[in-house]
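Many introductory courses stop at the sequence. We go one step further.
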Amino acid sequence: MIIHALIPMRKGSTRIKNKNFIKIKKKPIYLYSVEPAIKSKYISKVFISTNENRKKFTYKNRKLEIIGRSKESATKKAITEIVIREFLKQYYCDYLVLIQVTNPFIKTKYIDLAIKKMIYNKKK
């Protein structure tokens, strides 16, 4: 069973400049959602879908892949479903976990619990 996590991350926030790289306790905010997803025992790979320069991502892990976003999905009015559709056209998975980059309180145990419940309920 292949389970991927998708983290949409658009550059160009109009309210908070460079918000995805703002540091909280010396750590960029995007890592607070990336690291718990990487630590998940169920997630095979974590994808950040972004129009940001890849050189800005200093965090390296074999489970993490930075992928590009189309111009259509990178506008400030683009809905998340566009990013999901683009992702699913390129990558196969049985389940896709969507995680918002600005959710710094997400924990691995809750990601795993949600996946476990989803898989268990699917088998019934």
